[in-house]
Amino acid sequence: MHVDWINSIIQGVLLGGLYAMIAAGLSLIFGVMRLVNIAHGDLIILAAYLGLTVASALGLYPLTALLIVVPVMAVIGYGLQRIVLNNTLSDDILPPLLVTFGLSVIIQNGLLEIYSADPQKLDAGQLGVASTNVAGISVGLLPLLMFVTAVVVIAGLQWIFYRTALGRAFRAISDNQDVAQLMGLNKRHVYGVAMALSLAVVALAGIFLGMRTSFDPSIGGGRLIFGFEAVIIGGLGNLWGTLVGGVILGVAQNIGAQINPGWQVLAGHVVFLFILAVRPRGLFPRMTG
Amino acid sequence: MADPLLTLTRLDAHYNDFQALFGIDFDIAEGEVVAIIGSNGAGKSTLMRSISGLITNGASQISYRGEQIGALRADQIAEKGIALVPEGRQLFPSLSVEENLLIGGQIGRSGPWSLAKIFELFPVLQERRDQASTSLSGGQQQMVAIGRALMANPDLLLLDEVSLGLAPVIIKSIYDALPQIVGGGMSAVIVEQDISKALSVSSRFYCLQEGRVSLEGESGSQTREAISRAYFGV
Fold this sequence. Notes:
Chain A is an all-alpha fold. Chain A has twelve helices and two strands, in the order αααααββααααααα. Chain A has one domain: ABC transporter involved in vitamin B12 uptake, BtuC (Orthogonal Bundle), CATH 1.10.3470. Chain A starts with a helix and ends in an 11-residue tail after the last helix. With 234 residues, chain B is an alpha/beta fold. Chain B has one domain (4-90, 154-232): Rossmann fold. In chain B, the strands form two sheets. Chain B has a six-stranded mixed sheet with strand order 6-7-8-3-9-10, with helices on both faces. In chain B, strands 2-1-4-5 form a four-stranded antiparallel sheet, with helices on one face. In chain B, helix 3 (97-104) packs parallel to helix 6 (138-150) and helix 6 (138-150) runs parallel beside helix 7. Chain B is globular. The interface between A and B is medium-sized, with 18 and 25 residues.
């Protein structure tokens, strides 16, 4: 009996890695340019379909397809930011919300048109069913790899943010756009690079999501909510907090499912609302305003 | 006089419907230090924002080394070698002291200024290089702001009210550093409310009043009364 519980907690922790990957790109964009990207979830699904097309057209394993999907998504991100989203940014927070909402609708319908509404899955092959035994508990290799990837992604973003010239530019622009431009930073370009980075992470999240579960064009919105919840639980502007937020969400969902399969998603939302009520700024807030 | 480094020709500047500058004519030569004085709201900071590109103007209204730069963005103007120390210092709170200086140098223009040279000029910053810029005193923050601008190795340095809100002894130490800064042939525009300070470090001055040049001349040439009249408009 209690082995089941421990098992579902471990599965929840590992699932939290995926949520953290979904959330990290969201958090990055909000941190740098105060843009809430409503299309983030749909971009993840777009990446999954891109992975599907690349994998089947070239006969590649989904993880190998990342070599193509990650750069393609990064280029899409840069272009999207320079051509569309930069024009929506001002002191008013509403235009980017509306435009990314429209983008979300466009992506969903575009995917529906091309791929139909049939659920698809990326074939993970042996890795999808392989597992290792840790102290009597069987842990799937794919979820484990997903979690390790999430930790590496967050450590990498953290390193970029606090140890590189690019991260310095991100933080400076986030602090004060005008003065950052006086330093010779072209904010339109820096924003483009931030979105490219965000969508590179989206590509990773999309491929792992597609290997883990089936997906169809409509499920982006649900993933977006998990991403938001992980960011808010962890505290705005704190990437390691986002990982903790993702883990809390994943564990809550799996414990909920253990109690009653119908409570999986609900349990996650309840824990999120509880934390929001007790700690409105999240567990480890770093950003004000 | 040598060819001017920077020339403003009938420069107007607007904030939405509000016109802040009216037909400013101004020039500064290579290696020259020029003061801009005027009371609060006379348009001094607006003039600095126009030159540095934070306010865009008609292309022909600002020319730099013979090139029309009035319509360029701030980052493009920074690359041409014009650096602004903004009013109120405006350091990046998320960046440490050293990072604030490094980001000033990220344009990559070559010249005499480097992190080591800034630390030589303001030794206290070296001791505090890893601290958050917000943890410094006002005077030290001003040193960071000046150092950040110098890191870009500009040919023209714009200093906007560097003495604002600082104790007299700190102001003196900052102004004492000025000869070392402009000694290398750098030009500087110094915006000040303190008239005697401004006139003592500059060779020429412009006085602004309600967005117009009310008086200009060599710094030693005008009587106190003429300057007061131009300053206060009485």
